[in-house]
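User:
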Amino acid sequence: MMRLIWISMLFLRLGAASSSGMSVENASLDNGDNDLMLMNSNNNNHRDLQQGFCCTNNFKTCYDSSWCNSMQSRCEGPCNGYWHELVGRWSKPSGGCTSSSACCSGLHCVKFGWGVACGIHGKDGNSIDGVDDTTTTTIATTVATTTTTTATTTLVTDDPTPSPTASPTASPTSNPTPSPTSKPTPSPTASPTASPTNAPSDSETAPPSSSPTSSPTGSPSSSPTMNPSTSPTTSPTESPVASTSEPSSSPTSSPTASPTESPIASTSDPTSSPTSSPVESPTTDPSSSPTTSPTESPVASTDNPSTGPTASPTASPSSSPVESDGVIGFMLIDANSDTQLRFLDQPSDVINLFNVGTSLTIEAITRGSVDKIDFEVDGQYYRTEGVPPYALGGDSVGDFDPVGFLTNVGETYVISARPTVGGTLGIPLVVVITIENNAGPTTNTPTIGPTFSPTTGPTTSPEEPPPTPPSDSPTTNPTLSPLNVPSILPTGPFIAAGYSERIVIPQPEVPDDLDDVPTNCPHDQGGLVDWHSLPADIFSVDVTLPENTRVVLRDTTPITVGTLTIPASSELILAPSSSAGIDLTLDGMIVKGALTAGSETCRLTLPVSLTFVGQRPNNVVTNVPAPSVKGIDVDGGTLSLHGKRFYRTWTRLAETVEPGDDILMLQDSVNWELGQEIVLVTTAMKDSREWHQNEVLTITEVFDASPTGAAIRVSPAIQHRHYAIDAYQAEVGLLSRTIKIQGSALDSEPTDPDPLNCFDNGLSGRRNGDASQPCMDKELTGYGAHMMVRNGGVGQVDGVELYRVGQTNVLGRYPMHFHLLGDCPSCYLKHSSIHRSFYRCISIHATNQATASENVAYDVSGYCYYLEDGVETDNNLTFNLAAHIHMIGPEPPSGGGQNIPIYTQSDTLTLPADVTASGFYITNVQNNLIGNTASGGWAGFAFPNLPTPVGLSKDVNIRPAAALPLTLDGNTAHSSAWWWYHTGAFYFGGALYYENGVFKYNAGRAGRNQGRETCAKDLCDAGDCFGGCSHKDRRWLTMTNSKAYLNAGVGLNSWTGRMELLGFEAHDNGLAVEALSGGFWMDELLASCRTGEEVVLPPAADLTSIKGDGFFWYDTNQAHIISNSHFRRCGYRSDEYDQYDSSPDRGCGDDAATGCASRSTVWGFLAHSDQFVPEIMQGTRNISYEKCGRRFYLRNYRGDFTTVSGRTQNWIDADGTASGLNVPTIIGSGYSEAGLWWAAGDETVHDDQGPLEFVPQFKERGLAHIHVDWDVAYNSQVGQSACGNGERPAYPCPALGYIKHKGARFAGDLGLPVTANGDIVGLAGGFGWYLEFLDGVPKEILVDRVEVDKDTPLLLQIAYPPGTVVTTTYEPAYCSYYDSYVCDWEFSSVASVDQVRQSPGNVFHMSDNGLLTIRVIMSPQTFSGKPDWYLPDWDTPGKNDNFAIDSFSREDIIIPLSSYHNQLAIRAECAGGTYCNTGIDSSPGTDLEREIHFDVCPDNMGQISFDRCCDANS
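Assistant: Predicted structure:
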């Protein structure tokens, strides 16, 4: 059977089908399993290896260009007629699918292109009726022969024996090397085109000297051979396909070359090498035919720079096809240095990472005017590049982005670049690349550039050019010859710099001044007074510099200074004159003038050390000393410290290191030095003071050359494994700097050290079997140095080491403190390190527009990067590292359920929130957090809710929890969330507040007025900080490109507030994401619950006590939408859960190092509550799975019985990818106690795992939710003595009635139990719901909290005693009659049920048998009409900048949001108390029973579902 190696070349446009004689419109369809013609996204082998976003910031992708603003045209480009971008939306007609046009209702551009055109292939990519293999081959051939291009379509056959379908290309002059059998490399079949006239040598260290020219300068003497002249003696692996075009005439001359030039090596013969131009061109006809099909061309190059020809022949056939605009070749690019390495050989090439490094991309080289280039990888759409240079990984004005999959050693990829020229699609040029990492010399003869025309093979090799050495001090990944790399270094495979599988992690800007000559040095300026020439009388205990003096200190002063004061008119300049540096010891410093060490253009490379001394007073917490005590008090002055710039300050491992190793392979180039200290950050799951695997090491060697960004040797040898795998890699941070601010070793360390021997066996079960913990209320007496900038001062600290700093629990005494400065855009802490800190890293306190960037923090007590009061805005926290963060307080907070003990301010806990100390403390999201990483701590990034500001700003009239974020992008967190299973590595939870003047912290789920309310309007300015935000003013907290891994708790937990999580990777976590929100959208999630690597845990811990969950749907008042997301190795593996995947390595099992808890699942539902139950809350689109175990789980932790929440679970599976039906589906509970409420039709599919029911959705089918109250004696007891929320023992919650679908199918079914709770949710759009109560029909029924789409009719029927007068009224809440608004609306009677169904919901029908029918709709909360009755849609205007009805929508999924206190009142006039005392007879055979059960279908039809009847004879 023939198959296409590049599916994208099958149909270049839909018109290609008609050129082959087949009409796409008339292609018949298979009406069986192939009804839905969508290829499952699981088939995208390399999907998202490197995100090819055409819109920045990962907010949205190509199929919704309205989010892309100025990038709109670039995003819309891929949709312009490309069949591989089109997916048919399935809409099967009642008569079946007779043609593609009948089954495909419109074509829609999708992000990655699923590679299937509606009407071309079935959902699995198989051919369908009317499109057989012969037709496919004809189509491809026709396309190739009717288009002028520089490359041709290549077909590969699965059968190795047939002869070529046309004249094959030239045969090698000797036996060719067989092609790989795993993925054959196609031969070129294009007609001859121009070759480069001055191609480069094939060294990876030098760019080519020129690009290929557009015109040939000569011609060979005869036409190229199209058949081999001899037969190969080896068995071929696959047959090449002949070129589909030939030269129109024979060339008339031979190419000539100077003796020093070398022609292009034959692409058919890897063993021959050129020495001169060919003397004879091949003839048109072969002299003999091959006895077997020739093999394909072998890979031509293995990136050996030591050999290779130096130029190409300048001749080519005189009658080559006319050169057209388009793609003419591929260039390998070093994405770090943005330099060209070499041309890639056509049609195949080998990229050797050992020679070129791991930061690579590929550029498509073009001729003429090209509109855009579309890249495909292995037949799947990858990305579109609309602006030159046209790069596979993208670029920003030539600043190339690396492509992650180009580091996958041993893989082979087919890369296609298709141009659009003048609005017309071209044929792609294709190259097949294989990735290697080979340290030894290679034997294949490299070629020099894109070989577009077949040539004959020269016979000898050229001289080897000398290797090009790397630069002395590389600042990006060096490009190396094997001769440069020490053999002692590992050979990979390596992880590329910045690599992440699904998200884009931003990288700090590469500095361009590392090697600049220092300029404008303060110590070289005139008018300076030497320290040692100052008057002797100023040197007493305390020293004050003279007024109006600029003093320079160039060496160590022998005395210990008390408090050094720099007057406002003076300046002290530190400028070491020798390698001995400066070492100044003092009690403290007051800077009213300026303290200067270097400048931004004159960084100090020699050491400067300021050591501060002083014992901690006993009452220091309650009687805080002056800021100058044991620190630098910048009181209105300027602090300007600029040490040597080290780049990068931190990076990640490129390869895993094991115990005993002493060489670290780093992802990025660094200019670190011998003797410097680094921290190798843990990749264990726990990172705590008493048990961790961080390592502080010393650099003993920096290798001049490395196949990665850099390689260093360290001492001592590594003690623990530190991972560098695709999912995550250990950070490596530089601790040493040339300028050092430190506390004295004699009096800074805590006098109450942690003995590291504490356990809490009572909580070990909550802590994954590990009872060890820090000894709390220890390490409270640390008293290090500090720096404070205040009173309008300016702090500029760059390249400084802060060591033994911070004063535990002393308010305001932090390593770096910008204190009440207002707007200070010139304030910064950059490129510095903070380690062994006893209280924080940097506090930005009531200061705006400051910067903390590229800092390394390690071993820190209390919150590290700290926004203090909640009023701080517009600051920049970028590319910082925080590791090994320690909590302060009485215990590591933990608890049951959602609650944690409340902590209060005290002498041992100045900030109550420090009990949950984390790497980042973000009290106001109106700041930029970009590219930061946190390891350890209670959480990694803490976003507490502040209903009001705190501290010195507590009277500022703002609500920090209502702030809108600037940019939260590219941040990662790991090895945290150990202490409580609800803690997130990113934790949007907890509340810091005042209660009766007492400062308190609740680390768990905060109360109503303590939640997050992001709003475009300043609610405080509007007069009520806790007022509601109108529908139109709502805004979302958006976080993009984030990653969490190795967290025992949750990757991200958001307890409150509207949020968009766009681009999130979660690896080896207990739960990927947890969210409680009335509007939470998650897009581009990768939940890799287990990577398969051994997770490192404390000795007593066991991974089988840690969940491996993907996502849990919450139980009430939520609105969650998840789209375009992938789940990998989630869910418990057992024979009980193999319905969807039975592979032996699916999910996670019982292994202590790689397993998970036996209750683990991809999707979980909280099913324990009778009090809090789901409305319509959740929807998904484009969900995919990979090696997952248990997929669904209705979890009732109270026991093996059903609850109201369990029986009413529901889910909008918008495209059926979550359920696997692959059609729009409604998912409902599968509990048998729900009767036929969800199993409501023949087409329903039962899932045993949940259990669930999958109901295909079409026509008017949908979901509806109502709440009913009818008897206060029952309804008022909910949550008090009946229908509880997980209490033990459980409150009783019996059925007080039942609701079921109308029709004969349900006559024998009790239906869904209705309890005192009164919440009902189910399938709507059918013949109606029939509600009855066990105690009789109530005299008053109140229906509220309605959720239903206006296009899904919900008919509610209730039986009354015949003749009963019933009044139905809609009663809005908070209504007043003004501006034509109408309040209460009484319904009118109509003559039939059908009239009710067709009505806008303001009428009723009462039958002669007493059966009441009403249509329940979502009505506006505060009015019923204006003045006419409303049947509102989702965008219908309401009052006060609200919509008439509320909803949350993303990705074409709409989640209704009910309102409260408005109600539909049904009141009956009948005798009795709460219930009518006249009975209702609906027994079999009565007229009422027939009306309820048998009057829904015509006589000749039977009921097959809650909404359909079928001809009984069909």
